[in-house]
Amino acid sequence: MPVNDDVFAALANPARREVLGILLEGPRAAGDIAEHFDMRRPSLSEHLRVLREAGLVREERQGRNRVYSLEAAPLREVSDWLSPYERYWRGKLGALRQLLDEEEF
Fold first, then answer.
1. Fewer CB within a 10 Å sphere, N or C end of the chain?
2. Residue ranges of the HTH arsR-type domain (predicted)?
3. Which helix (DSSP H) or strand (DSSP E) does residue 78 occupy?
4. Which strands form 65-70's sheet, in the order they lie side by side?
5. 3-state class (DSSP) for residue 51
6. Are 68 and 23 contacting, i.e. CB atoms less than 8 angstroms apart?
């Protein structure tokens, strides 16, 4: 299954990757997430919107707060997409290891 380009675009930004890392620990209110960053609230809101539109986070209203949760399914799709490249590089590194073992410096 091809990965949605919005997921790659969302993951391209380090601040958004950090938000995902924070949410890996569990759901967080937007204010709690904001405490981890030195940016204005509208900027964080934009990052959260991009993550939500990419399907990487879920937003839930709890009273006056917006609580965000990690949605990991798109990350599984990225992992599946990367898998052939990982196998490729493991093969290359294995061949290099074998060559170096044969050379015995």
1. C
2. 1-90
3. helix 73-103
4. 28-29, 65-70, 57-62
5. helix
6. yes
In angstroms, rounded to a whole number, what is the distance separating the alpha carbons of residues 41 and 48? Answer: 10
Q: CA 57, CA 34: separation in Å to the nearest integer? A: 15
Taking the CA atoms of residue 1, residue 24, residue 14 and residue 74 in that order, the dihedral angle to the nearest 10 degrees is 10
Number of residues written out for the chain: 105
pTM listed for this prediction: 0.78
Q: Strand pairing partners for 29? A: 67
Q: Is the CB of residue 31 less than 8 Å from the CB of residue 70? A: no
Q: Which domain holds residue 25?
A: 5-103
Our count of domains for the chain comes to 1
Query: What's the CATH number where 91 sits?
Result: 1.10.10.10
Task: Give just the sign of the alpha carbon dihedral 91, 93, 99, 104.
Answer: negative
Q: What is the pLDDT of residues 6-29, one digit of tens each?
A: 999 999 999 999 999 999 999 999
